[in-house]
Amino acid sequence: xxxxxxxxxxxxxxxxxxxxxxxxxxxxxxxxxxxxxxxxxxxxxxxxxxxxxxxxxxxxxxxxxxxxxxxxxxxxxxxxxxxxxxxxxxxxxxxxxxxxxxxxxxxxxxxxxxxxxxxxxxxxxxxxxxxxxxxxxxxxxxxxxxxxxxxxxxxxxxxxxxxxxxxxxxxxxxxxxxxxxxxxxxxxxxxxxxxxxxxxxxxxxxxxxxxxxxxxxxxxxxx
Length: 223
Fold this sequence. Notes:
The protein is mainly α and 223 residues long. It has one domain (10-221). 59% of the residues lie in helices and 6% in strands. The protein has helices at 22-32, 59-62, 67-83, 96-102, 104-129, 133-145, 155-171, 182-202, 206-221, and strands at residues 16-19, 44-47, 54-58. A hairpin with a 6-residue loop joins strand 2 and strand 3. Helix 4 (96-102) crosses helix 5 (104-129), helix 5 crosses helix 9 (206-221) and helix 7 crosses helix 8. It is globular, with a radius of gyration of 17 Å. The model is unreliable at 1-25 and 29-39 (pLDDT under 50). It holds the Pfam family Glyco_hydro_130.
């Protein structure tokens, strides 16, 4: 388990929120976080858009999950709150080269999705490096059971699906647990190389990591 002294001090009201259903959760997020482009339909969600970490839980869907999945989802979001619990993790610079390719709005969406992939990778790596890989495995099992076929027929589908299988990249597991298209498989084969290069190029700069990852991903997707 995460030891108490590693947990961040949570400021403000409602550091964690439990909602009766997904619609209420989504409406609350939209109300409090004006201007955010993409809000995924997640059972649990970490965000720090107000300057401090908060974990949102869709109780209607959460309550029926197996205990191992409950723990994996909560530990995943709690780790996000430790690693990514401030507004600085949302300050991502725009790259003119990518804007020229995608246009401003599409680039903004792609940057947001790419940044969530980077933060998820950091979260999974933290757990694995701290002898908590079993939480990552159960998180992956939960995703595998609740996904349709993973297709990479568009940039945004490809980004979303890489986010889904990110734990598998770090655990070096068999992708046969997923229904996955050949194009997605081809992309995933190169992801580890991209991720390894990020730490060398960007260190702890989330904006740099996001842009380098997205540009490399665009090159893969257009092959």
